[in-house]
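Deviations from the work plan: none for this task. Representative record:
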Amino acid sequence: MIQFEHVSKVYETQSDENVALEDINIQIEEGEFVFILGHSGAGKSTFLKLMLMEEKPTKGKVFINGQDLTRLRRRKVPYMRRQMGVVFQDFRLIPTMTVYENVAFAMRVTNISSKTIKNRVPFALSLVGLEDKMDRLPDELSGGEQQRVAVARALAHGPKLIIADEPTGNIDPEMSMDIMQLFEAINKVHITVVVVTHEHELVQKLAQKYNNRVITLAHGQVASDTSHPEVAEMYEARMREMGMEPTYL
Amino acid sequence: MRFSSFAYLVGQGLHNMRANRLMTFASMGVQTVCMILVGAALLFSMNIDAMVDYIGEQNESYVYLVDGLSDEQITAAGEAIKAVPGVVEVTYISPTDVLTEFDDMLSSYTNLTDTFSSDNPFHSMYKVVVDDVANIDPIIEDLSMIENVESVSATRELSKLFVSVQTVVNYISYGLVAVLALVSIVVINNTIRLTVFARRKEIGIMKLVGATNGFIRFPFFVEGVTSGLISAAASSGVVCGAYYALYRFYLENPTTLSNLLGGTLVPLEEVWYYIVLGFVAFGFVMCGIGTATSIRKHLNV
Ligand SMILES: Nc1ncnc2c1ncn2[C@@H]1O[C@H](COP(=O)(O)OP(=O)(O)O)[C@@H](O)[C@H]1O
Ligand SMILES: [Mg+2]
């Protein structure tokens, strides 16, 4: 479903070049649940932005459902994005819209009937425990609540792939566990889930319980992958070659 | 597009207008002024056209023949006049016709027919109508070269003046319309740009959740085109009202000059639909262009 082939991403800033990802090779199958684990600045958000076509790879190719994103027509981009549900690290809620509207408009964009919207928005919000705050504006919610609205929005239009960037970054541990278990439940109905996080303790707990795949990013490289143990050795060898100690988190 | 999406997007456009009402109001004001000026220029030019037509219809030149010609010579001269390019109508007027006409005009004072019955002082002449008053000079030259023609008189001075006024007025009108169209586009462009700028984050988010450019653009078009149509309605009202008042004033206060030019302006009944349709089209097209050029930048996400 998702395939990264020798993908590198270099951000050009005025002063220098910032290597965010370096020669990434990852394949994620349909129906998988994958944690992307890594310290801050490891390149996790960049990884997601490449899937969303918010950024273009400097080198290499990204495929989604066999479609090479670097060769996707500009006109087709919206339709590709509709197949995904995205929880952004910075939420990206629209401040002038109520919670209900924030979820509803993302469905409207996808050309879903207003009847379906009316039914599904409250349902999606109840999944994240916000059914009684539908008429609030995002500013009137806590950070964690805003994050849960973002989760509801990502789920509401029924995507085949859920991508979440630090979805528990602003939520207390208990609620974090609930959100993660919500993703696990969604995955049970064969929806592919990619969750990016730096909370390795939470990942450890969940991955063991649900047998999830964990890919660790470090310094823009894949440092380990529970589905491909050989990756870790390759990473260590590469780091030693460069005279560096392999670090993970 | 689903009807519910359509209704939603129209609602968004109208909502944007209200949210941005000061700027919307200002831009509608500028557009209304532009349209009023365009309307005034067009009405002015329409009336000049009508006056030129009127004078053109009055365009009667007279070709006087020399005295004492035979009937054959008169007919030959008539044929020669007909053959001049640009001449569309030729009517023979005999000295007796002239005398009768004058007699009719002066019947209360004297009886000319009796006085001059045996010794008519008038010459034979031809009344000539040309197709285009603008070309009257070469025609008159041709006419005066014809054998047995004594002189040619044309009411051409007024015609010439009006034809040149017509040309100038038309050029000024076209120029004015072009400039005002540009002003309208710039004003709308700026208004919409302001809304777009206020919503640029929102537009970015919409793009990331899979909105097409058309979906994002639509409310802005609604906003631009609605303000164009409101301006069109306002300026139609002002222009038609003012023109009707002017029409009445012109009719009720005749002057020598106005009589010479037909005595009346083109009536409102004959022009109002040009005005209204013109304004609507102007508002629609200019706002469409203004809107289209203002959004592009923020859609590249
Ligand atoms: N728009 C940008 N311009 C320049 N550098 C960037 C930009 N976005 C991210 N980076 C850099 O790329 C690296 C990876 O960033 P990111 O993918 O956001 O990491 P993470 O999400 O794992 O914290 C960091 O060093 C960051 O400073
Ligand atoms: Mg990040």
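The helical segments of chain A are 44-51, 77-81, 99-109, 114-127, 143-156, 173-188, 200-210, 230-241.
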